Amino acid sequence: MEEAIRESLLPESSKHEIEPSLIRLMYAGHFLARWGARMWEFSVALYMINSWPDSLLFTAIYGVVESASIAIFGPLIGSLVDRLTYLQVLRVWLLTRSLSFVVAGGSVTALLIYDDLKTTDFQIFMVLIVVTNLFGAVGVLSTLAGTILIEREWVVVMSNGEPPELLTKMNSVIRRIDLSCKLLAPVFTGFIISFISLRASAIIFSVWNIVSVLLEYWLLASVYNGVPSLSESDQRRNARVGGGNIAESSSILEESESSIGDETDDWKIQAMERLSVIPCFDSWIVYLKQEVALPGISLAILYFTVLSFGTLMTATLDWKGIPVYVISIARGVSALVGIGATVLYPVVHSRIFTVRTGLWSIWMQWSCLLVCVASIWVSSNFNSAWILMGGVAVSRLGLWMFDLAVMQLMQDLVPESDRCIVGGVQNSLQSMFDLLTYMMGIIISDPKDFGQLIILSFFLVTTAALMYTFYVYRIRLP
Q1: Which of 80, 300, 329, 367 could, after both became Cys, cross-link 430 (CB 3.0–4.6 A)?
Q2: What pLDDT does residue 265 have?
Q3: What is d(CA 361, CA 378) in angstroms, rounded to the nearest whole number?
Q4: Dihedral class, residue 161 (left if φ above 0, else alpha if ψ from -120 to 50, else beta)
Q5: Residue 306: which of 371, 392, 390, 377 has the closest Cα?
Q6: DSSP per residue over 144-198, as a string?
């Protein structure tokens, strides 16, 4: 049934056999892009806590800036990806990301070299902190454009006309690449920090972004030029954009507007007109009208958590005395479990299909996180930290299978004209909940009170699991 729905939503196109070498080129380009992003994601928490020791404040503030940027501008990024040609998106994404991360890495390097600026010249110190926050956020925003382009658009277009198993396989490999980078990049960075210096890691990060950008562009441009279905999709996108704006191009939104077109519903039309001045309001309407909105919201709620090897948990483990290289190895083990999820997902999916795979996986994640809750009552900081890391690592099996299930639901059930828009809003929504995590980190900034954040996170995972369970019950699968 799910395969039939997917086929009805995908556009008709001529059959083109994709050369395996082109798929491998796409994987290679994606690997290079994700490696740099994962290096920054891991190390920025350590840069921030080094700038202001014994407090999660600067770490949380950076998280707020980054998450708020995606929450506010995520729908705009999705609309931009939808309106530009694939090659234009590719150029803007890679150039903006590279320049932004080079500037952010340079400002961090200055903070680490002149580590007494906080007392000798506080104004310069704050300028460098602001530059790091702003350009780091711009780099992450541009990375979002690339994520939407590859994961939400190219993978679906390239698998169109192929057996449904190809989409499942490509999704799994793309996620496996991301998690491999999440495993290896922090280990690489952690060993540099532990055995050379924090300063060296910032310099290497900046150099990486200068060196890798041209190779990434060549790899991904080669994929575009070698896969006819991508250029065909580009032509359809151009024709659609030329015919009107988002609201006009979206069949979902058109149905919404027609349903309130009666004279008795004039107040609804007026309300819509007033709300339409809100930036990206149309994008949110498109998202909320999708059948998969509830699973998307359930996935987004999982981002309101400290139970991951993110900046707040990394900074807390560092405060508890866990060596940086140990944290990086634990993060790598967590990613290794996630890679296992990408291997297991196609097997489970082939037996119980997408919706039930999501249900099984989110409750498995919930069960594993019970260990993290138990770590709060362990008196030894050292033992508590190890139990926490173990619980988080094992829970990644359920988390990443659920992520894959929701992503495939969106790929199967969202029309082509809405894919990029829905992808942008989904990332925006996830960042809103991520933003709330960092706001809680600012409110509860003492690492000794991290247990309160663990309890809140577990409650929200429970909420997400119940919401998805309600979705499954509502569609009443046989």
Answers
A1: 300
A2: 53
A3: 28
A4: left
A5: 392
A6: HHHHIIIIIIIHHHHHTTS-HHHHHHHHHHHHHHHHHHHHHHHHHHHHHHHHT-H
Residue found by looking up tokens 């407090």 in the block: 55
Q: What is the spatial distance between Cα 102 and Cα 270, in angstroms, rounded to a whole number?
A: 47
Nearest-angstrom CA–CA distance, 472 and 181 = 33
Residues 171-199 pLDDT 10s: 889 988 988 887 788 878 888 888 888 89
Q: In the predicted model, what is the mean pLDDT of residues 296-304? A: 92
Rounded to the nearest 5 percent, the helix, strand and coil shares of the chain are 85, 0, 15
Confidence band (pLDDT; 50, 70, 90) for 143? very high
Measured in degrees and rounded to the nearest 5, phi and psi for residue 476 equal 50, 65
Asked if residue 166 lies in contact with residue 23, where contact means CB atoms within 8 angstroms, the answer is: no
The CA R_g of the chain, rounded to the nearest whole Å, is: 22
Dig out the tokens for 83 from the structure: 């309106």
Report which of 282, 299, 277 is spatially closest to residue 418, judged by C-alpha positions: 282
Rounded Cα gap, residues 209 and 101, in angstroms: 7
In single-letter form, the type of residue at position 32 comes to: L
Q: Tell me which residue has tokens 């679906």.
A: 156
| pTM of the predicted model as reported, rounded to 2 decimal places | 0.73
Query: What is the full DSSP assignment across 261-276?
Result: -SGGGHHHHHHHHHHT
Residue 374's CB is within 10 A of a number of other CB atoms, namely 14
Query: pLDDT exceeding 90 applies to what percent of the chain?
Result: 32
CATH topology of domain 19-475: Growth Hormone; Chain: A; (1.20.1250)
SS3 308: coil
Question: pLDDT tens digits, residue range 327-369?
Answer: 878 877 887 898 899 899 988 888 888 888 999 999 999 999 9
CB contact at 8 A, 175 and 404: yes
Contact 28, 217 (CB under 8 A): no
CA–CA gap between residue 449 and residue 438 (Å, rounded): 14
Kindly report the backbone phi and psi dihedral angles of residue 246, in degrees, each rounded to the nearest multiple of 5, phi listed first: -60, -45
Terminal CA-CA length for the chain: 11
Nearest 5°: CA angle at 67, between 472 and 426?
Answer: 30
Q: What does 201-230 look like in DSSP terms, one character per residue?
A: HHHHHHHHHHHHHHHHHHHHHHHHHH-HHH
CB 56 within 8 A of CB 316: yes
pLDDT digits (tens, 9 = 90+) for 214-248: 999 999 999 999 888 888 887 877 776 665 544 44
Task: Say how far apart CA 354 and CA 360 lie, in whole Å.
Answer: 10
What residue segments make up the domains of the chain, in order of their start? Answer: 19-475
Contact 118, 125 (CB under 8 A): yes
- Residue 415 three-state SS: coil
